[in-house]
Amino acid sequence: MAKKRKPKTPPPRRPEKRPEPRLYLFAPPLAEAGGFPALLEEVLSEVDVACVVAMANGAAPAALRALLLALAPVAARHGAALLSGEPEMVNAAGTDGVHTRGAGSALDAALAALKPGFIVGASDARTRHDAMEVGERDIDYLMYGDPAPDGWTPPMEETLERVSWWAEIFNIPCVAFAPRLEDVGPLVAAGADFIALGAAVWDDPRGPVTAAREAEDRAVAAMADA
């Protein structure tokens, strides 16, 4: 059984002076760790990443646990939080919390099991009403635009509108998912505190380090223009 790790301090609420947005990275769907931990190490060595999210994507619990156990020391070496979608993986694999989709039973279970010591992030708030209800819970961030289990993402226009609305009203940090590197700047300009990326980094033909650097550069440039 994995040794229980000391809980990480959850991300702070949004300060009055907006800092430069940081990156979240969604790990690609993986049946096993393979060479991905080494690839992640390379990216985290070169780019500032706040969080790595590894969802089950249909993997069996044992396979997910093995993947997370391989990723946990990599993330820890570089000060990045490691999240999955399963609260039990905090103890089983040493993750720092969970990323949940929807405002229903999964979020309820995560909050009951993990707060106040671990990170609980939420996403997939379909309406403003849903988002406001989620925002009243003890969450550490709300994410807009993240992929559904089948890979579908909402239209970018919708994500930009929701991010802008959330940033104007709520202090809870907002994470925005960028399907393409070109989406990073507009999402930062809309008010996102963190930018999440997945295939835009891992599938870039130039390599993930180059893609992640470009995402970081785009975020910095958008902040300078804000």
3D architecture notes:
This protein is α/β, with parallel strands linked by helices. The protein has a single domain, classed as Aldolase class I (TIM Barrel), CATH 3.20.20.70. It has 9 helices and 8 strands. It has helices spanning 36-46, 61-77, 89-93, 105-114, 128-135, 156-169, 184-190, 199-202, 208-225, and strands at residues 22-26, 49-53, 81-84, 97-101, 119-123, 141-144, 174-177, 194-197. An 8-stranded parallel barrel has the order 1-2-3-4-5-6-7-8, surrounded by 6 helices. Helix 2 links the parallel strand 2 and strand 3 (81-84). The longest helix is centred in the C-terminal third of the chain and has 18 residues, at 208-225.
The residue fraction in helices comes out at 40-55%
Cα radius of gyration in angstroms: 16 Å
CATH class: Alpha Beta
For the largest beta-sheet, the strand count, sense and barrel status come to: 8 strands, parallel, barrel
- Mean pLDDT across residues: 90
Shape descriptor reads: globular
- Poorly predicted regions are 1-7
**CATH fold-level label:** TIM Barrel
Strand order of the largest sheet: 1-2-3-4-5-6-7-8
Distance between the ends: 48 Å
The class by helix and strand makeup works out as: alpha/beta
State the order of secondary-structure elements, H for helix, E for strand.
EHEHEHEHEHEHEHEHH
SS summary, helix count: 9
**Fourth-tier CATH superfamily name:** Aldolase class I
Q: Indicate the CATH architecture.
A: Alpha-Beta Barrel
**Which range does the strand content fall in?**
15-25%
- Tally of strands: 8
Total tally of structural domains: 1
